[in-house]
Amino acid sequence: MSIFIQNVFLRGKNTNVYAENNRITYIGGETRKADICIDGSNKAIFPTLVNGHTHAAMSLFRGYGDDMPLQEWLSQKIWPAEAKLTQEDVYWGTKLACLEMIKSGTTLFNDMYWHFHGTARAVEEMGLRAVVCSVFIDFFQESKASSQQKESETLYAESRQYSSRIQFGLGPHALYTVSGKSLSWIKEFAMDKNLLIHFHLSETQQEIEECLKAHNMLPVEYLDSLNFLCPLLVACHAVYVEDKELDILKNNKVSLVHNPTSNLKLGGGKIFRYPQIKDRNIPFCVGTDGCASNNNLSMLEAMKFAALLQKWAHRDTTLLSAQEIWETATEKAHRIFHVDAGKIEVGKLADFMLVDKKHILMIPDHNTISNLVYSASPGVIDTVVCDGKILMEKGKVDGEEEIIAKASEVAKRIAFSGTTL
Ligand SMILES: [Zn+2]
User: Fold this and answer.
1) pLDDT digits (tens, 9 = 90+) for 57-109
2) Taking Cα atoms as reference points, which of 343, 353, 350, 360 lies closest to residue 395?
3) Which residue among 128, 142, 224, 348 is least enclosed by CB atoms within 10 Å?
């Protein structure tokens, strides 16, 4: 399988890009024969985006109970609805999420949700990449902890049936839902099998207060005392972290995920400490979080929110430039998830998109990256390729009508059985 893209705009000039199997193998003036030829005129080629933190199937809860008090929303809307979800529901919810991600230029996401195989099957069929993490919650009960351990081991073994686009990850939910003993087990399992760990860290003030009360330590200090921190850990949110905690995260080579839209919508009260995190050179990327707290999965929007939030908070227009947030969401994010993509270069995986340079949101073209970060909507993305295969061409994804119909049906059933909208 080969793809030849002719006369496409790349780093300031027009050129040709050739991908064979799943790698970019040639960039230059020559014409190559290929299975698929794409006219790149008026298009720019860019690496695709990475969504660092999602609960993909929560696309089913888009707009379900917005603007309610946080605890009421969770206990009256989200948790009862989640309890009804079957693996098939999660499959359709994830398909809807994948469709939205492809349309907004994302081909890799880091997910944590129930019904592992529902998510993995959807990703496999839709052609993207994902770190699919099995949720681990024991509520501090021994019996639950051992059944969750068994489940993680089983799912890890079963995940081998999927292609290399799907990475198995461990998803201990958070400090307030997983015991210290289980966190230690997860770290050992992750180190043994070289698996990423996906974790919610210090998202709310309540978490900090509870941790101080229970352990007389800040969350990162407590995690450090458990020996849980390591380079395989990807910690999401981390908005309530003190300087000394950032030092510990840095020393243990932990990566972070900034979710600006979700933090704003859920009224978290603190923002990602970008200047301190950048000072320490702690790797981080950007995510959307689930659709219930965002309400979309557009990384174009997440990049803009991330950049604007820092400028506003620190009264500094130079902070987190378009170029920097772009590199964070592409090249640097791929590195965090151990995927050899994120740059249009010979040898890299063939994960890229073609952007319509004539779209109204891209005109004029003083700076294409600025346009993508501050102006673009998903509509500017024309073609998306992942692992050397075309997932979207001229804005169209195979089977999208069926996905929309099925996911709408599932969402309606869940919302109306038991609770009222
Ligand atoms: Zn989350």
Assistant:
1) 999 999 998 999 888 888 888 888 898 899 999 999 999 999 999 999 999 99
2) 353
3) 142
Cβ–Cβ under 8 Å, residues 126 and 391: yes
CB 166 within 8 A of CB 132: yes
CA of 393 to the centre of ligand 1 (A): 31
Give dist(CA 305, CA 320) in Å, integer. Answer: 11
Q: Tell me how far apart the alpha carbons of residues 414 and 85 are, in angstroms, rounded to a whole number.
A: 7
Classify strands 23-28 and 13-20 as parallel, antiparallel or unpaired.
Answer: antiparallel
**For residue 282, how far is its CA from the centre of ligand 1 (angstroms)?**
20
Distance 397 CA to ligand 1 centre (A): 27
111 CA → ligand 1 middle, Å: 9
Ligand 1 centre from 319 Cα, in Å?
Answer: 25
Contacts of 353 (CB under 8 A, 6+ apart): 45, 46, 47, 48, 105, 381, 382, 383, 384, 385
| Two structure tokens written together for 176 | 């307030």
- Element spanning 6, H or E: strand 2-10
In the block, residue with structure tokens 């919508």? 265
Distance from the CA of 283 to the center of ligand 1, in angstroms? 19
For residue 396, give the DSSP letter.
Answer: B
**Tens digits of per-residue pLDDT, 168-188?**
999 999 999 999 999 999 999
Helices marked H in 108-197 — which ranges? 116-126, 142-158, 180-193
Q: What gap in Å lies between CA 333 and CA 36, rounded to an integer?
A: 29
Entry pTM: 0.97
Domains and CATH numbers, the chain: 2-47+349-400 (2.30.40.10), 49-336 (3.20.20.140)
Could you tell me which of 202, 180, 87 has the C-alpha nearest to residue 134?
A: 87
Measured at the alpha carbon of residue 58, what is the angle toward residues 372 and 408, in degrees to the nearest 5?
Answer: 95
Question: What is the largest distance, in Å, between two alpha-carbon atoms of the chain?
Answer: 67
The string of DSSP letters for 321-357 reads -HHHHHHIIIIIHHHHTT-S-SS--TTSBS-EEEEET
